[in-house]
Design goal:
The structure holds four protein chains of four kinds.
Chain A: E1 5-11, H1 14-25, E2 31-35, H2 43-46, H3 54-80, H4 93-120, E3 128-130, E4 140-146, H5 151-161, E5 165-170, E6 173-175
Antiparallel strand pairs in A: 1-4, 1-5, 2-4, 3-6
Helix pairs in contact in A: 3-4
Chain B: H1 17-25, H2 34-60, H3 75-99, H4 109-129, H5 156-189, H6 194-202, H7 210-243, H8 255-281, H9 290-321, H10 324-335, H11 339-351, H12 359-362, H13 365-392, H14 407-430, H15 436-446
Helix pairs in contact in B: 1-15, 2-14, 3-4, 3-7, 3-8, 3-13, 4-5, 4-14, 5-6, 5-7, 7-8, 8-9, 8-13, 9-10, 10-11, 11-13
Chain D: H1 7-20, H2 22-32, H3 35-56, E1 77-85, E2 90-98, E3 101-107, H4 120-129, E4 139-140, E5 143-144, H5 147-160, E6 166-171, H6 177-189, E7 193-197, H7 204-214, E8 219-222, E9 229-233, H8 244-251, E10 265-270, H9 275-279, E11 282-285, H10 291-305, H11 320-330, E12 334-338, H12 343-356, E13 363-369, H13 376-387, E14 391-397, H14 401-404, H15 411-415, E15 420-425, E16 437-440, E17 449-454, E18 457-461, H16 474-478, H17 488-499, H18 510-520, E19 522-524, E20 552-558, H19 571-574, E21 583-584, E22 589-591, H20 593-599, E23 605-609, E24 612-618, E25 626-631, E26 635-637, E27 643-645, E28 663-666, E29 669-675, E30 679-680, E31 695-697, H21 698-703, H22 710-717, E32 733-738, H23 747-755, H24 763-767, E33 776-782, E34 792-798, H25 807-811, E35 817-819, E36 825-827, H26 837-841, E37 848-849, E38 891-892, H27 898-910, H28 923-927, E39 933-937, H29 944-948, E40 954-955, E41 967-970, E42 972-974
Parallel strand pairs in D: 6-7, 6-14, 9-10, 9-12, 10-11, 14-15, 15-16, 20-25, 22-24, 31-42, 32-41
Antiparallel strand pairs in D: 1-2, 2-3, 4-5, 4-16, 8-13, 17-18, 18-19, 20-28, 21-30, 22-25, 23-24, 23-29, 26-27, 32-39, 33-34, 35-36, 37-38, 40-41
The chains are: A alpha+beta, B mainly alpha, C mainly alpha, D alpha/beta.
């Protein structure tokens, strides 16, 4: 496998970043990544991200949690060992609601977080591919990837046209390896 | 996105993105000041006292507390409910205000969430400690066992086990997920060092990739959507510890929403108490502005009034019910031997927050600080009043008794303060108190005269 | 943008037909159905409370958003105002119950009260009941009149002072309604079952009427859009209204279960009597109520897409409206008509159609009285330009 | 041994001495040993006690009632008939023996006096068996010696006493025919022996009055069961007077409305609110010195009404008018008794009874009571003789003169010059330090003995355990002195054969008859006294009564729990709350609220009278000018830290040489400024208008049996539920308590503690409301507390109500408490984690939490909290092995004596028969002298409880909460003209 090379262009403003990206997209050069210090509003539309499937995951997990909790409680109370507590019926639905609800939330929340971490490939101690340490500070970075060296200059130009500053070819440092 | 010009800026002082990062991460640079060490030392001292008190409680027995055959719960459960309530502000701010698109939450949600977690840790101690047989506490979990005996799903205390642990878990995840980008910021600011490695591990390899951000936002929103009913459910379930009983003063249907309102009320008061000091100590006046304080005060007055209406509703319904026990319970609250607790509660919770109707007071930091402490005290007494005055004179006058705490109970309570502040001091030292990324995201719309090219000078 | 609403002939026709149908159904019900005096009064109370509660809910919606400095609601503020400003109609509709007090409220029969009701006489007595009614209606009407007037004023004046004054009156209204919503619910609804009491009842009723108001606002918004107005209301606004309906339906369910669970749990006869009556005599409706007030909006509006679908939103809102009508039905009927009125007949439907048609007339009339969006509102621009987080 | 000046000093001295005593040391070290050692010792202790008891116990002679004696079956209890007698009342009992150790005392249902009833003291007397402070070996001047050495020395000394000097045998009343025979034998050998009876309580006045009338000292046999009108002047016959257990049983016969429509009328004149007074229908509060005035007034009024001669120089108190009318109306079915220890007053009382014709109906001379034979003049002359040097030897037999002698006699001074002093005692009592010889006496559960309670009413005691210490029974102590070597059993048997059973015609062989008597424990002969009373000669009544009462008077009384104080070293009794004041662990000066207000005294303020400092207890229903305190206190209790409980108030009484008087006028009451927290189990005394105890008047009851209980029907009618009741297909246990029969005597409370191993927590813990009693008796005052005569008292025993809709069960997170299929609210102790949530939710507050390690069952070492020594090696032998000993941090509560239910169910199953109603008796039910507690299966249509539930008087406590309790109550009906019954504020839906 060939060594990947990247060219990065810096923006200092999120509005300019969005305009710049639209400009770059016109040139058919695929954008490898955009690094921002905070979630830039509208960026996902510009980059044409599909809507995340995390909500669906949360719903499924939550439903599963609720069903498991409810069925377990019913089983415990009416089948495993039906005990008479204060004359309450064995199948005492209102009593099951709180635990059912909590388990639904717990399942949904845990699955969401793990879904997010796994999908994003991050986690405790995961290596980070960092192009510019300032991206977590004040720099909006557009990262373009090239394999063929001949493309390098073209990309440079595109970025320049798109208003990017501080354009450079870079070999990213891997944090935490 | 257009923002109406009559809105107050959320970040003052014409901050650039860079400045935001610098200002907020400043406390993490260099050596901490003497004040910090003094504070931490005091907190550790209180924690040690708590440790001794806990040892006595577990070793000697609950008899070392001031409880008796009539009053089975006293300071312990009062503190439990109080701490859980305090915790609610964090979740309320980060979940419900997020759903309501209240942008001013961005400056305070991080520290409020941290307080949530620390407060829930403190709170969680009490249900454990109040058990007569702590070593057997694991019985509350429905694990398969040779006796084929499960747990009692009818018990609100069991619901608490699920609610509090879920709440703690979800709050922790929510908080930490929000923290990841900021930890990455700190990581990226550090020179190669051991510290940097630690932050690198903690940052989960966050890069700020647009794709991650999109996913992160989506997850945060749903977590907020989950946390909003969760925060309602937690204090509702806590309230059901009382409301499901038949004890007059405990059994009343308004408890669930009223407890939630009370929890947010006390939580905001605690956030204010701490943030008014923290913003000064850490020089964050530009991020936690008087406007923020005013917004929080508005929440205080709203929830305080809800709580007040609930008090009056309870009082009226006790009379209206025509039930002798109900009527007596409330007369006893107001004029019985614990009248002072009731009137402290009434004064602190219902009367003092009404001062916030005046804009001048609402925007006055000193006044806010004092009133927030009043509210903290009042909300503690609310739980004390509910627990102790309802129990000490219930149905059979033959069993009526009095309750006063022992040093052990007070010690455990102080110990939880120790725990809370130890964690809080460590938190402000090692993590950003304000959510850096989130503040940056509202800087454009709500920063004071955000000057774009100001950044150039910082290169 | 056509911001001036005009009542067309079609609207008039539809509403006139509604009024006539309502009257016809009532007459039919009276001739062919079995009815009692109690049932007539119960229907007057039910629909009267429904109408006045919608007015209150709508103004609360406006007021609470104004003091919370919310921007997005500016687009629907006038619609809510139109509903709210007809408080006089609701008052006219509910006041007649004074004449039916003896049919509706057991406590009014002072000649044979048991010991407990005697204890309650300090509150539950006719003169005080009427006095309270006057206070509620006078207070509401005054504050709503002020709010409406100030809001209309902003159409012609760009003075921010008007806006701040509006906010002050909104705050006053919120405080006043915070107390009176509970007490009026105790007076008009809870005291039907004179022995029964629940501290949550006031809040529960209030959240019910608030959800109902949101449903009605959604219905009106969509209807007006179909009539060609409000074209500036886009998916984002509908999404927000949908979230509202979704969220408050859950909140309503939370209060419902809070009240039911606690009473179910303690199982004290003085409290359970309320639910026992409903579960034995109104078994089906009792559960249907929960399903259409909670289960339907919960699943229908959970996904983001559904909240942005006009028809989906409209049908859900209509179902929720029916649900809260049923909720009121269950609050009123068991205590007044007992098992005799254990169902919904042409009489109930007739009354409701009649009242709602009259109410709609009034709402449309109010809509003509100003621009459909407050012109000089400080959040005017902000409310058109925003997006929900995905 | 050192002499001591004060009790405090005595305690210290004793403590120091204990340090040298190896046994005391051992006990102490056991108490302080760590858990592992403790378990070893405990295991060894139990095993050795069991082995010792089962190997050496006199199997051949003891005959169990139910089980054949050949062997002891481990885990199966045997019952032995015996008799409790401690110088006061005598109560035939059955002793439950398990694995060689007595663990419970039950009443003997064959006894015609008590019908199986017991008292708190009878129940508690078991614990004194396991009292480590008992003298363990014979001692001479504090040095342990052997029995043979002791006997040799004693005989030598006795022989050396010159004939002109008396040998005083100072004893409590001996009602044992066989001991009397032994003493006769002694008297034969030593003709100078003189028996002086020193009772802890003097009934000399009563006896002397009857001596006047019938010629010999006698206490007649009262029949409260035959009396329609009972008038008592200060006599607490339900609590402490003569034989309260028997009287309670008689008294309630006319209070049980479920059996007949008869209700006796009880009128009490008294100065201090007593147990009897609190049960009275009408009550008049008078000063103690006024008693005779009122009695004379009553005499004269009745004399007028019955045309009899009146007494001279007697005023008329108008309060007695009504009493007189009632008495005359019920004629011979009347009974007047008085507490006065003055012969003349008792003569007037006799005169009243005679005029009414009660002699022969409610007062019988056929079976004269043998109890309390002491004569005050004997005691004073004994003292005089001692002072004059006319006494050569004093032998004390369980009479503890150092404590029981009137305060004007200083025992120490009295006997310091006497050559031979012997104390035969089963207690570490106050007399021991002053006597040369201390001879340890068996506990009654270790001894053979016989009793004649009343003429012709015999009972037996048989040993149920081998003597724990080196002690002997009285026969074995005395017989060697006359040179006889005969076993007690044989001695008694011989005596009975020749004197008691022989008289009776037997249907069977003789030996069988003895066995049957042993097995029954009681024997009734047809023997009658031939005492005849003569008519009262009014001239006989000397006007010697001192009429001048002080402005402020002191009244000494005996507490129901502790009585004369003989059982003071008994944690069960000390922790028993007084049935009136609800205070335990101390005595106190009880004062009327108005007096307290006048002097600005608050509850617990210490005041001083004649050097006696005691805290004040504000007691409604007391005469304003009277300060009262209980006798029987000021004794030392061997707890891990020995302490003196309360103060001895005897020296507040000034005794003339003619008799002991239990009141005195006092002046100069000093307020000390010190406060002392009294330990009490009830702090609020007003029902707050709640329909907890429902009562009505007899008139209203006759009109409508449900009167006062109107609420029950309303509540039943409005019971709605959101879920169906669980079905109880087999048994459904239930209990009913007749509030009209319950006198509040507390026997049930001690019985429950003994049966269920309920921990004793000590004074400090009671102060903190940590008491553990599973069964408590709630006591409320109704009416205004400021009018002492109007105040009325209601009582209600409350234990777990075993609700079918139990609020407690719902909330336990770990399912440690739930409902059995037989309707019992059950606790799984080993599952309990101690959240106390159930306790909070219990509307009856009957659940008890183990705040500390009271029992030693906790797994954490060094944290035991045993203030009363109840976990000592020896005391643990009293534990009921059928009931779990609860650990620290666990909730416990009444189980309906589930162990008894299971036992009887198993028995029935083994016999393949059905349980009969009444087969199962809970401990409280069994102990109750009033038989106010009824237990049974509500699913059995023939059972008594299923009949009672239909009784119009039946209701449940807090029934409006719909907790569906299995315990029910029957309304209290007072025999009063009209009754301000509390109208319950409860809804009735119209």
């Amino acid at each position: 496998m060939k060594n990947r090379q990247y060219i990065t262009g810096v923006y200092y403003d999120d509005k300019e970043l969005l305009d710049g990206i639209i400009q770059i997209q016109k040139s058919d050069i695929p954008i490898f990544d955009v690094r921002t210090p905070f979630p830039v509003h509208g960026l996902d539309d510009v980059l044409k991200f599909k809507r995340s499937r995390l909500p669906r995951l949360g719903f499924v997990a939550g439903t599963l949690g609720a069903i498991l909790a409810f069925v377990f409680q019913v089983w415990v109370f009416s089948s495993s060992w039906p005990l008479n507590f204060g004359g309450k019926p064995f199948f005492s639905v209102p009593s099951f609601i709180p635990v059912t609800f909590e388990m639904a939330v717990l399942f949904a929340a845990i699955s969401l977080v793990f879904g997010f971490l796994i999908k994003s490939g991050i986690g405790p101690g995961a290596p980070a591919l960092i192009f510019d340490e300032r991206t977590s500070d004040n720099v909006f970075l557009v990262v373009l990837e090239f394999v063929d060296d001949s493309h390098e200059q073209k990309i440079f130009n595109v970025l320049k046209e798109a208003g990017a500053e501080d354009i450079k070819s870079i070999n990213p440092s891997l944090q935490n390896e | 996105m257009y923002i109406s010009p009559i809105r107050e800026p959320l970040v003052t002082g014409s901050k650039s993105y860079k400045q935001v990062t610098d200002d907020i991460t400043k406390p993490m640079d260099g050596k901490p000041g003497r004040l910090w060490f003094v504070g931490l030392g005091l907190a550790l001292l209180a924690l040690m006292l708590g440790g001794v008190a806990i040892f006595v409680t577990v070793w000697d027995g609950i008899g070392s507390w001031g409880l008796n055959r009539t009053i089975g719960w006293g300071w312990g459960i009062t503190n439990f409910v109080w701490w859980v309530g305090i915790g609610h502000a964090g979740t309320f701010i980060s979940a419900i205000l997020l759903l309501f698109r209240q942008k001013w939450r961005t400056s305070i949600n991080r520290s409020a969430e941290a307080m949530t977690i620390f407060a829930v840790m403190c709170a969680g101690l009490f249900p454990l400690l109040h058990m007569g047989r702590l070593p057997l506490g694991f019985f509350v979990f429905p694990y398969p066992n040779t006796r084929d005996l499960w747990v009692n799903f009818n018990s609100p205390l069991l619901w608490d086990v699920f609610a509090i642990s879920t709440y703690f878990m979800v709050s922790l995840l929510f908080w930490y997920m929000g923290l990841i980008p900021d930890i990455a910021t700190i990581r990226d600011r550090l020179k190669r060092s051991f510290k940097k490695k630690v932050y690198a591990v903690l940052s989960f390899g966050w890069t700020g990739s647009a794709r991650h951000w999109a996913r992160h936002e989506s997850m945060s929103l749903i977590l907020a959507g989950l946390a909003a009913p969760l925060v309602l459910s937690v204090h509702s379930i806590v309230s059901m510890d009382f409301a499901t009983s038949v004890i007059p003063g405990w059994h009343t249907t308004i408890f669930p929403p009223y407890f939630v309102a009370g929890a947010v009320f006390s939580g905001f008061a605690m956030v204010l108490t701490l943030m008014i000091i923290t913003r000064k100590a850490l020089n964050l006046q530009n991020y936690i502005t008087v406007g923020h304080v005013e917004s929080m005060n508005k929440v205080i007055i709203a929830t305080g009034s809800i709580v007040g209406i609930a008090y009056i509703t309870e009082l009226f319904m006790a009379w209206y019910s025509g039930v002798v026990y109900e009527r007596f319970a409330f007369v006893n609250r107001a004029f019985g031997p614990y009248w002072w607790a009731y009137w402290i509660m009434m004064t602190c919770n219902v009367i003092t927050p009404q001062l916030f109707w005046f804009k001048k007071i609402r925007r006055n930091l000193a006044a806010t600080f004092i009133i927030s402490i009043f509210v903290n005290i009042g909300m503690w007494f609310e739980r004390f009043v509910i627990i102790v005055t309802s129990l000490h004179r219930d149905f059979l006058p033959s069993s009526w008794a009095m309750y006063s705490p022992t040093w052990v109970e007070v010690g455990v309570y102080l110990g939880t303060f120790g725990l809370f502040f130890t964690l809080f001091f460590l938190f402000i030292r090692f993590f950003p108190v304000v959510a850096i990324a989130e503040v940056k995201s509202v800087l454009r719309s709500s920063g004071e005269n955000f000057v774009r090219k100001g950044v150039e000078n910082e290169k | 943008m056509d911001n001036q609403f005009v009542i067309t002939k079609n609207i008039k026709t539809v509403l006139t037909v509604g009024v006539i149908t309502g009257v016809l159904l009532i007459v039919l019900g009276l001739i062919f159905g079995s009815w009692t005096e109690e049932r007539i009064w119960a229907n007057i109370l039910l629909n009267g409370f429904l109408v006045i509660s919608l007015s209150l809910g709508a103004v609360f919606f406006v007021a609470v958003h104004l003091i919370a400095e919310s921007g997005w609601q500016t687009t629907v503020q006038r619609i809510a105002e139109a509903i709210g400003s007809n408080i006089w109609l609701g008052a006219l509709m509910i006041v007649p119950i004074v004449f039916g007090v003896h049919s509706l409220y057991h406590w009014s029969h002072t000649e044979h009260l048991d010991s407990v009701l005697q204890l309650k006489q300090g509150y539950l007595n006719l003169p005080f009941f009427i006095l309270r009614m006057i206070i509620y209606i006078a207070g509401w009407t005054f504050l709503i009149y002020k709010i409406r007037q100030l809001s209309l004023k902003s159409d012609s004046s760009s003075d921010l002072k008007v806006f701040y004054k509006l906010r002050t009156y909104s705050a006053l209204f919120v405080v006043f309604i915070a107390i009176t919503s509970s007490t009026s619910a105790w007076d008009w609804l809870m005291s039907i079952d004179a022995h029964w009491f629940s501290t949550l009842y006031g809040w529960y009723t209030f959240i019910g009427l608030f959800v109902n108001t949101i449903a009605v606002i959604i219905i009106l918004v969509i209807v007006l859009q179909k009539l060609g107005y409000l074209n500036y209301i886009n998916d984002e606004h509908l999404h927000d209204l949908g979230k509202y309906l979704f969220g408050f339906s859950i909140f309503w369910a939370y209060l419902w279960i809070s009240q039911y669970l606690l009473i179910w749990y303690s199982n004290i006869p003085e409290e359970t009597v309320y639910y026992v009556e409903r579960i034995t005599n109104f078994r089906v409706l009792f559960y249907v109520n929960v399903v259409i007030c909670f289960v339907v909006p919960f699943f229908a509006l959970m996904s983001r897409g559904n909240k942005r679908k006009v028809s989906w939103l409209l049908y859900t809102s209509i179902i929720v409206f029916c649900g809260h009508w049923l909720d009121l039905f269950l609050a009123i009927m068991p205590g007044t008509t007992g098992d005799a009125g254990a169902g919904i007949s042409v009489l109930e439907i007739g009354f409701t159609i009649l009242y709602i048609s009259l109410f709609c007339f009034a709402i449309f009339k109010s809509l003509t009285k100003g621009s459909l969006v407050p012109q000089n509102h400080p959040y005017y621009k902000e409310s058109f330009d925003y997006e929900n987080i995905k | 041994m050192k002499y001591w000046k004060s009790l405090e000093e005595y305690n210290n001295a004793e403590e120091k001495d204990n340090a040298h005593s190896p046994t005391e040391k051992r006990v102490k070290s056991v108490l302080k040993s760590d858990r592992r050692d403790f378990l070893k010792l405990f295991g060894f202790g139990v095993a050795s006690a069991a082995v010792m008891a089962s190997c050496e116990r006199p199997v051949k002679k003891a005959i169990p009632l139910l089980i054949q004696p050949e062997e002891i079956r481990p885990g199966v209890s045997s019952f032995y008939a015996s008799t409790y007698y401690n110088g006061g009342e005598a109560v035939p009992v059955l002793v439950k023996v398990r694995d060689g150790r007595p663990i419970k005392i039950e009443g003997n249902e064959q006894c015609q006096l008590t019908n199986g009833g017991t008292s708190a003291q009878v129940q508690a007397s078991l614990l004194n068996l396991y009292d480590e402070s008992r003298p363990k070996n014979p001692t001479f001047n504090g040095v342990e010696i052997s029995w043979s050495d002791a006997n040799r020395a004693i005989i030598e000394k006795l022989d050396s006493i010159p004939d002109e000097k008396d040998i005083i045998f100072l004893t409590h009343t001996i009602i044992s025919p066989s001991i009397k025979l032994v003493i006769d034998k002694l008297a034969k050998k030593y003709p100078n022996i003189k028996v002086v009876i020193l009772d802890s309580v003097s009934y000399s006045g009563l006896r002397e009055a009857y001596r006047e009338i019938v010629g010999v000292s006698a206490i007649p046999f009262y029949r409260f069961d035959k009396a329609k009108t009972i008038v008592s002047f200060g006599a607490d016959f339900l609590g402490t007077w003569i034989t309260p257990t028997a009287y309670t049983n008689q008294y309630v016969q006319n209070r049980k409305l479920q059996h007949s429509q008869q209700l006796s009328k009880h009128i009490q004149y008294e100065s201090v609110l007593s147990l009897s007074g609190s049960n009275a229908d009408d009550r008049y509060v008078i000063k103690p010195s006024e008693q005779h005035k009122y009695i004379r007034s009553l005499f004269n009024r009745i004399a007028e009404l019955t045309n009899n001669p009146v007494l001279p120089r007697a005023g008329f108190e108008k309060e007695v008018e009504n009493t007189a009318q009632l008495l005359v109306k019920s004629k011979s079915e009347s009974l007047v008794v008085a507490s006065s220890n003055n012969k003349d007053v008792q003569l007037v009382v006799f005169g009243i009874n005679q005029m009414l014709g009660s002699m022969g109906t409610t007062i019988s001379l056929d079976n004269e009571l043998k109890l309390y034979q002491g004569r005050d003049t004997d005691i004073f002359s004994f003292a005089k003789n001692c002072e004059e040097g006319a006494v050569g030897a004093v032998v004390c037999y369980d009479s503890n003169p150092a404590y029981n002698l009137p305060s004007s006699i200083n025992f120490k001074e009295l006997i310091k010059d006497i050559k031979l002093t012997i104390n035969i005692t089963s207690q570490n009592d106050e007399t021991n330090p002053f006597c040369q010889f201390v001879l340890p006496l068996n506990h009654y559960l270790e001894s053979w003995n016989d009793y004649e309670v009343a003429s012709g009413m015999y009972s037996l005691s048989q040993p149920t355990i081998h003597p724990i210490f080196n002690s002997k029974d009285i026969h074995q102590i005395l017989l060697p002195w006359v040179g006889e070597q005969v076993k007690t059993h044989d001695f008694i048997k011989d005596y009975w054969i020749s004197n008691i059973i022989d008289n009776q015609a037997l249907e069977n062989s003789f030996v069988t008859s003895w066995k049957r008597v042993l097995s029954n424990g009681v024997f009734y002969s047809e023997k009658k006294n031939n005492l005849k009373n003569k008519l009262l000669d009014t001239d006989l009544i000397l006007n010697s009564v001192d009429e001048s009462g002080g402005e402020l008077e002191f009244q000494a009384y005996h507490s129901v729990a502790l009585g004369d104080g003989k059982l003071a070293n008994n944690p069960w009794l000390q922790e028993l709350p007084d049935p009136v004041s609800k205070i335990c662990w101390d005595n106190y000066f009880s004062v009327a609220p108005s007096l307290a207000q006048k002097n600005r005294w608050k509850q617990g303020d210490v005041i001083e009278i004649k050097g006696v400092r005691l805290p004040v207890c504000i007691q409604p229903g007391q005469h304003e000018d009277v300060i009262a305190a209980a006798l029987g206190y000021g004794r030392t209790m061997l707890t891990p830290d020995p302490e003196t409980i309360g103060k001895n108030v005897k020296h507040l009484l000034n005794n003339s040489s003619t008799g002991i008087c239990y009141y005195a006028s006092i002046s100069n009451v000093k307020t000390t400024g010190i406060t002392y927290e009294l330990a009490t189990t009830q702090m609020h005394h007003n029902m707050e208008g709640r329909a907890l105890i429902r009562e009505t008047s007899f008139n209203e009851y006759l009109k409508d049996a449900a009167s006062g209980n109107e609420m029950h029907e309303i509540v039943e009618h409005h019971h709605t539920s959101l879920y169906k009741k669980h079905e109880f297909k087999g048994h459904h246990w239930a209990m009913f308590i007749d509030l009209n029969s319950c006198t509040g005597c507390n026997a049930c409370v001690v019985a429950c503690s003994a049966e269920n191993n309920v921990p004793v927590v000590g004074r400090d813990e009671v102060r903190r409301s940590h008491e553990m009693h599973w069964l408590r008796i709630d006591r409320y005052y109704t009416q205004s507390p400021n009018d002492p005569s109007k105040i009325s008292v209601v009582r209600q025993p409350v234990m777990c109500q075993h609700c079918d809709n139990a609020p407690c069960e719902n909330v336990c997170p770990v399912a440690a408490t739930n409902h059995s299929s037989e309707g019992i609210n059950q606790m799984a102790y080993n599952r309990c984690i101690g959240t106390r949530y159930c306790n909070n939710n219990c509307p009856y507050k009957v659940r008890r939490f183990n705040w500390y390690d009271y029992t030693g069952a906790d797994s954490i070492p060094f944290n035991r909290k045993d203030a009363t020594g109840m976990t000592s090696d020896l005391k643990r032998l009293v534990l009921n092995p059928d009931v779990t000993v609860r650990a620290k941090g666990v909730i416990e509560k009444c189980s309906f004596c589930i162990q008894r239910i299971q036992e009887k169910k198993l028995e029935a199953k083994k016999l393949a028969s059905h349980l009969k109603d009444g087969d199962i008796q809970t401990a409280c039910q069994q102990a109750c002298p009033a038989k106010a507690i009824i237990f049974g299966d509500i699913n059995d249509p023939k059972s008594e409880v299923s009949q009672l539930i239909k009784d119009p008087r039946a209701y449940h406590l807090l029934e409006e909460l719909h907790t569906l309790p299995s315990v029910g109550y029957l309304t209290k009906v007072r025999n009063v003209e009209s009754h301000n019954s509390i109208k319950p504020k409860y809804k009735n839906h119209s």
